[in-house]
Amino acid sequence: MLNVALPKGRLGEKVYDMFEKAGYECPSIKETNRKLIFENEAKGVRYFWVKPSDVSIYVERGAADIGVAGKDILLEYEPSVYELLDLGVGKCRMCVAGKKDFFDDGKKVLRVATKFGNIAADYYTKLGRDIDIIKLNGSIELAPILGLSDVIVDIVETGSTLRENNLEVKSVILPISARLIANEASFKFKCSEIENVVRAMKVQVSAND
Fold this sequence. Notes:
Blueprint: E1 2-7, H1 10-21, E2 37-40, E3 45-50, H2 55-60, E4 66-70, H3 71-77, E5 81-86, E6 92-99, E7 110-114, H4 117-127, E8 131-135, H5 142-145, E9 151-156, H6 160-164, E10 167-176, E11 178-183, H7 184-189, H8 191-208
Parallel strand pairs: 1-3, 1-4, 7-8, 7-9
Antiparallel strand pairs: 2-3, 4-11, 5-11, 6-9, 6-10
């Protein structure tokens, strides 16, 4: 059995559809029930839903052989996993955003609110900019509005939340999308099974382009 960790939510459903079209269907996953694990013995695959930020932990520690995680999670937490394929879904951008009238003149330490402390630190280190990271877990957009921070570093999909709160993108750090990842030991011991999945998923990525 190939154990597959899928992120809960809209992204996970999109990704499961790709697996299904690639020939790794598991009908029970679409039934209304409270089950946590779904398997198709004939296809040799077992799926389970987990919180998106936890997928890489399940894969890194071997509870899952492969999984799907956003590039943001991989960059922020740097898990020891193999990144096999950009699935081309869940596309968004990691951005610096702030109030429309804010301009960083570089004269004082920049206050940056974010849940992506490592990504923010790496970005500003490369720019040679001194920053004070304010770690938040939700409603990041509030920070500059209430004067807690000068800017935020966060994921931007459509930008509508920013616009509604009189904020705007100041710079794009990098594009984000969902990646197929593998446990390092599993990739050695289940190499052919995993490579078959990668080949089949590449066809789906091409079909979606």
